[in-house]
Amino acid sequence: MPSNPDSRVSAATAYRESAKALLTAGERVLLVAERHSDGTPFWTLPGGGVDADETPTEGLARELREELGCSVAVRSELPPLWYAHTGPEHDVSRWRVYRCQQQSTIDPDLRAGIVDARWVRPDELPPETLLHVRYLLDSVDYSL
């Protein structure tokens, strides 16, 4: 993998800024299930798109309130990830991933596109977990 993943995306490539939360409890991580545009399910980190008038952490806080009804404290930022969408809406998203600490109860809102939310061990990920989420979780130090 290149030392600077941002160098693989040219200035001409349009991408959407997204913010994702890495919420851990011991050696478990919170994943959410969503659906691709064709209806197939996938598991990913909670979070979503950042609006033009928001900072990434503001967008993350809004997404977590909307989708999971929870608040978090942002602890630190991890290296960004790139996600190529399968649907027509956006070609590529740059995920800004933040280590977060849960500050309230999680209550998924199915109307917000979340199908399920689950705390899982990284060695027991659902089969439909996105590959780059698997890569990230393999590199995380859970003792932090």
What's the short version?
The protein has 144 residues and is of the alpha+beta class. It has helices spanning 56-68, 131-139; strands at residues 16-25, 28-35, 41-44, 47-49, 72-77, 81-84, 92-102, 116-120. The protein has a single domain (10-139), classed as Nucleoside Triphosphate Pyrophosphohydrolase (Alpha-Beta Complex).
Helices and strands in order, then pairings?
Elements: E1 16-25, E2 28-35, E3 41-44, E4 47-49, H1 56-68, E5 72-77, E6 81-84, E7 92-102, E8 116-120, H2 131-139
Parallel strand pairs: 1-7
Antiparallel strand pairs: 1-2, 1-4, 2-3, 2-8, 5-7, 6-7
Task: Give the tags.
144 residues; alpha+beta; Nucleoside Triphosphate Pyrophosphohydrolase; 2 helices; disordered N terminus
What does this 3D model show about the protein?
This protein is of the alpha+beta class and 144 residues long. It has one domain: Nucleoside Triphosphate Pyrophosphohydrolase, CATH 3.90.79. It has helices at residues 56-68, 131-139, and strands at 16-25, 28-35, 41-44, 47-49, 72-77, 81-84, 92-102, 116-120. Strands 1, 2, 3, 4, 5, 6, 7 and 8 form an eight-stranded mixed β-sheet that branches. Strand 6 and strand 7 (92-102) form a beta hairpin. It is globular and about 35 Å long. The two termini are 24 Å apart. Residues 1-12 have low confidence and may be disordered.
